């Protein structure tokens, strides 16, 4: 299965998800999102305990309807290289190595030109906080954090579950992660309904997040120092998982990340990662993208080594 996942990584790194294909059929993750939205609109009501039960039912329904078709497809695929290529083509849409790079590069470019409004608009496509209140450093921090966290959620975690459980594993992970991104929030509407999705996402990302942080340490200029800083800072992050890749990224770049931020409905007073370091800017965001590229090459090499093992 590592051969198929390596090929899927290569397909996505080279092609991304073509706009022409998106316009014709959409994207498998948006299909899953439509199902989650349907459950949210129809089942998320009533008392807290009713919402929690409905949230558990939503997790079960979304996983069943997402994974069962892939179980049937995977069982029908031929063995050998043909099966690996077909598996890679089916796994390809569930990776985001190219789109993540492109979205963050779209923030970097206006930052380097001094176009703060352009950078704010670009970063609004990838983060949930209010971009109108962000200065250049805030935009760069938001984009760098998104790059680090989504390197895990969008690339390493899907590959991990794909290698472990094949096509059903990668699809199950993306369904869990999409549920968390849509309903796993501590808002009045979703605190109860999305609780099961958020907890399951924490479990599914526990090891991949730490693997992603380790990858960033490996490709950093001073791996041992970055690893030490990551282990020091990650446990203080609001997320049990995101602090590992973000902490490694902050230390590798020599900048501070996280810290207080403004969302649409609240102010989150979060601790800093790599506190005392300067804020990032466009140059540091460019270095973050270079670090990301190196980490993805190492991930591909690890898949190749697994294939030969």
Share of residues in helices: over 70%
Instruction: Indicate the proportion of strand residues.
Output: under 5%
Q: Count of helices? A: 12
How large is the radius of gyration?
A: 19 Å
Largest beta-sheet details = 2 strands, antiparallel
Number of strands: 4
Mean pLDDT metric: 91
Order of helix and strand elements from N to C terminus: HHHHHHHHHHHEEEEH
**Number of spatially distinct domains:** 1
Trace the largest sheet across and list its strands.
Answer: 1-4
Cα shape: globular
Query: Structural class per helix/strand content?
Result: mainly alpha
| Distance N to C terminus | 12 Å
Low-confidence stretches: none
Per-chain topology:
Elements: H1 2-15, H2 19-25, H3 28-43, H4 48-76, H5 80-91, H6 97-113, H7 116-123, H8 136-183, H9 195-219, H10 223-233, H11 243-253, E1 257-258, E2 261-262, E3 267-268, E4 272-273, H12 282-308
Antiparallel strand pairs: 1-4, 2-3
Helix pairs in contact: 1-5, 1-8, 1-12, 3-4, 3-8, 4-8, 6-7, 6-8, 6-12, 7-8, 8-9, 8-11, 8-12, 9-10, 9-11, 9-12, 10-11
């Amino acid at each position: 299965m590592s051969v198929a996942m390596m090929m899927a990584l290569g397909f996505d790194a080279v092609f991304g998800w073509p706009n022409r294909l998106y316009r014709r059929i959409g994207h498998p993750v948006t299909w899953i999102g439509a199902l989650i939205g349907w459950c949210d609109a129809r089942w998320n009501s009533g008392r807290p305990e009713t919402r929690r039960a409905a949230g558990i039912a939503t997790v079960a329904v979304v996983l069943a309807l997402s994974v069962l078709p892939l179980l049937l497809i995977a069982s029908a695929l031929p063995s050998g290289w043909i099966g690996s290529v077909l598996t890679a083509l089916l796994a390809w849409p569930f990776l985001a190595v190219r789109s993540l790079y492109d979205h963050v590069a779209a923030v970097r470019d206006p930052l380097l030109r001094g176009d703060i409004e352009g950078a704010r608009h670009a970063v609004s496509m990838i983060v949930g906080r209010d971009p109108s209140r962000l200065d250049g450093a805030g935009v760069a921090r938001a984009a760098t954090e998104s790059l680090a966290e989504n390197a895990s959620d969008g690339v390493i975690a899907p590959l991990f579950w794909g290698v472990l459980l094949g096509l059903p594993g990668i699809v199950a992970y993306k369904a869990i992660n999409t549920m968390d991104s849509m309903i796993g929030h501590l808002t009045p509407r979703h605190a109860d309904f999305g609780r099961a999705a958020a907890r399951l996402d924490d479990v599914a990302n526990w090891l991949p997040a730490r693997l992603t942080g380790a990858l960033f340490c490996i490709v950093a200029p001073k791996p041992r120092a970055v690893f030490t800083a990551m282990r020091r800072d990650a446990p203080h992050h609001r997320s049990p998982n995101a602090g590992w890749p973000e902490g490694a990224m902050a230390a590798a770049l020599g900048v501070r990340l996280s810290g207080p931020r403004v969302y649409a409905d609240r102010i989150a007073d979060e601790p800093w990662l790599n506190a005392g370091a300067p804020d990032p800017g466009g140059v540091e965001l460019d270095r973050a993208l270079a670090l990301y590229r190196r980490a993805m090459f190492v991930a591909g090499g690890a898949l190749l080594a697994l294939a030969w093992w």
